[in-house]
Write a structure and sequence with these properties.
mainly alpha, Heme Oxygenase, Chain A, 11 helices, binds fe (ii) ion
């Protein structure tokens, strides 16, 4: 429903742009819960996040971060590469979610499957944005290859784990928490990208671009919201201090990743970049960082 996406996206992006740096992460969490009708119903999630943010304030919610992004995004080559990296990241995240969904219990399986389908679709949407913003800039043969970045999942397909995936396992609280932080970071990037792409896009393609961007922003907020609700539900069986501790640890990891990426003038991890760090993406049999991708 494009009208609904547009309404949500315009409302959310305006709210985020007017929010002061340092409080945008909490605002994204709030907007996502409001969108789901769950505002005020996730006190443990909200409280644990507030405590963690005070101890580990993320660099991706600061004015210098925005400035660096905007300066980088003025460069055509950088912007086009960033869209391809986003497509790769979404496709990779989709495959991970698909494997996790295959092992999830009844209460979480369909939501994880929908999430995997969304990210699979997003991978293609980033390529569509590349076509709209930089028409004819990619050789047809390379453009055809890029389609492989998306696994092409749909809700009609039967869930089976991706062969060899370290995510062929039951999802844990830690998995959902990492997803939630990654989705929040993606939402921040998305809002920055919304404005930056408008500067490069030919006027005749701007309307089509905005409708893709609106759909992306609505979906990313929905991903923040549903993972928050699952975290809240799972937290009922856990000591609250444990939830706070996990949030603190994972924000710490994401902040480290972000600072390292900034050294490379990158704002989103690629597979090659993640491969450099043991603690970055999950390795088989471990509970390391799982969801950079969103
Ligand atoms: Fe996405
Ligand atoms: Fe997402």
């Amino acid at each position: 429903m494009p009208e609904r996406s547009t309404r949500i996206a315009d409302w959310a992006s305006a709210a985020l742009m007017s929010e002061a740096h340092g409080s945008r992460i909490a605002r994204i969490a709030e907007l996502s819960l409001e969108m789901l009708g769950a505002l005020g119903k996730c006190p443990t999630y909200t409280g644990a996040m507030t405590e963690a943010l005070a101890l580990e304030p993320p660099p991706f919610d600061t004015a210098p971060y925005d400035t660096l992004y905007r300066d980088s995004a003025k460069d055509t080559q950088w912007m086009a590469t960033s869209l391809i990296t986003n497509s790769e990241r979404e496709g990779d995240g989709s495959r991970r979610l698909w494997s996790l969904a295959a092992f999830a219990d009844d209460g979480e399986r369909e939501q994880l499957k929908q999430h995997a389908v969304d990210e699979s679709k997003h991978s293609l949407m980033y390529l569509s944005m590349l076509d709209l913003v930089f028409p004819s800039s990619v050789l047809p043969e390379f453009r055809r290859e890029l389609r492989q970045l998306s696994p092409g999942f749909s809700m009609h397909q039967t869930l089976t784990p991706v062969p060899g995936s370290p995510y062929a396992k039951e999802p844990t609280m830690d998995d959902f928490l990492q997803m939630n932080i990654a989705e929040i970071r993606t939402t921040i990037h998305h809002v920055l990208q919304r404005q930056a792409l408008g500067l490069h896009c030919p006027p005749q393609n701007r309307e089509a671009l905005k409708s893709i961007q609106d759909c992306l922003l609505r979906d990313e907020l929905a991903h923040v919201g549903y993972t928050a609700v699952i975290i809240e539900r799972r937290a009922r069986d856990l000591d609250r201090r444990k939830v706070v501790g996990l949030f603190v640890r994972r924000f710490h990891n994401f902040n480290q990743i972000t600072l390292e990426e900034l050294g490379d003038n990158a704002f989103d991890c690629s597979l090659a970049c993640c491969a450099k760090r043991d603690w970055c993406r999950a390795k088989a049999g471990s509970t390391q960082m799982a969801f950079h991708a969103s």
